[in-house]
Amino acid sequence: MKLLEYEAKQLFAEEGIKVPTGILVSKHEEILLHMDAIKGKVVVKAQVDIGGRGKAGGVLMADRDTVIETARKLFNTTIKGIPVQRILIEERLDIQHEYFVSITMDRAKKQPVILFAETGGMDIEETARKNAGAVRSVSFCPLLPDVPGFLLRELCGDAPSDIQKTVNRLYHVFCHKDALLAEINPLVTTPGGVYAADAKLIIDDNSLARQGIAVNRDLTEREREAEKHGFSFVELGGTIGVIGNGAGLTMSTLDLIEFYGGRAADFLDVGGGADSERVMHAVRLAASVPSVKVIVVNLLGGITRCDEVARGIIASGVTVPVIVRIAGTNAEEGRKLLSEKGYEMLDTMDLVVKRAVEVVK
After folding, report:
1. Which pLDDT score, from 0 to 100, does residue 54 have?
2. Each residue of 269-278: pLDDT tens digit?
């Protein structure tokens, strides 16, 4: 289970790792309730389950006067096609130096391995490609309660001693939380000490009961979102997002995608009587799957009204192409609304699936 940044930082703090003071909001108006906590410059960070968030515009700078407007803009955007539904607003640190540290399992050695670099930040992958020696690594017996001191000194080099202490605390997180990955990038030094400016934590799904994590946490972020709105949702790993109403219609759409040589990215059944808000959340959810290149909306209007479906698609604001087949109650009104906004519509399920497969090839 991959945690979002704010969730990982909560667990890091429990192990004594310093994290910036922050507040979590789900809409920009909530910031008004926390203005006393915002003293000066802040970082406004989208909480989305993707890499490269900073380069994609998901991390913005603001201050007390601009934080509400900055958050509003971030809530109205998508990061690599994923809508922003939570934002973490943190104090902006006075950074002196950035480091990188990551802990995972070396399955060949059957031991934890720690990676460390004296430069961190968004370009760490490029740094590692250009200079293999820039990233040092050590592995050791997993039965040890701490990272041996001589290995910490070898790993961290001339970095301040507090960096070594933080690396050891991150190892405690890795062990105590049954993690598959525990990472801080960047790990920064400031006049006030060493801080985890960012956090990444992936917990082994097999350990969730032992960790005391509720059953409904044994889900991906998207599955939790689907559960909240009452959707039937399964991720399937392909490139074509699928939204239908009714299990039979949705399954038939998946079968046609396979028949025409495509791969579905999900099964998403919005159920009967879906209004515009429900459809909006469904489209955003389908677009949030990183592999999705196009979305097929295949809905039959009975209890569900096609004009409501159209309004929901338009309100979603996703940048991923959406190809629509709607038929039934108020179908003409729905088609007119979508046509005015430039959406591609086709008359049959067969045609809409063929078109979607063409788009991704």
Report:
1. 87
2. 998 888 999 9
Rounded Cα distance between 154 and 159, Å, is: 10
List, in sequence order, the alpha helices (H) in the chain.
Answer: 5-14, 67-75, 124-130, 149-156, 161-176, 221-229, 247-259, 276-287, 306-316, 331-340, 349-360
Is the pTM of the predicted complex or chain greater than 0.70? no
Radius of gyration of the chain (CA): 23
Q: Using an 8 Å Cβ cutoff, are 325 and 346 in contact?
A: yes
Q: Where are the alpha helices (DSSP H) in 149-246?
A: 149-156, 161-176, 221-229
Q: Average pLDDT of each block of 10 consecutive residues along the chain (361 residues)?
A: 92 97 93 90 92 88 95 90 89 96 93 92 71 86 93 94 97 95 96 97 87 58 83 91 94 95 95 90 92 95 92 94 95 95 95 96 85
Number of residues that this document lists for the chain: 361
Residue-wise pLDDT tens digits, 207-250: 877 887 654 444 567 887 888 888 999 989 899 999 999 999 99
Q: Compute the distance between CA of residue 165 and CA of residue 337 in angstroms, rounded to an integer.
A: 59
Helix (H, G, I), strand (E, B) or coil at 278: helix
Return the closest-CA partner of residue 70 out of 97, 41, 48.
Answer: 41
- CA-to-CA distance for 164 and 194, rounded, in angstroms? 10
How far apart (Å, rounded) are the C-alpha atoms in residues 270 and 247?
9
Tokens of 261: 């040589």
Q: For the chain, which domains are there?
A: 21-91 (3.30.1490.20), 97-207 (3.30.470.20), 221-360 (3.40.50.261)
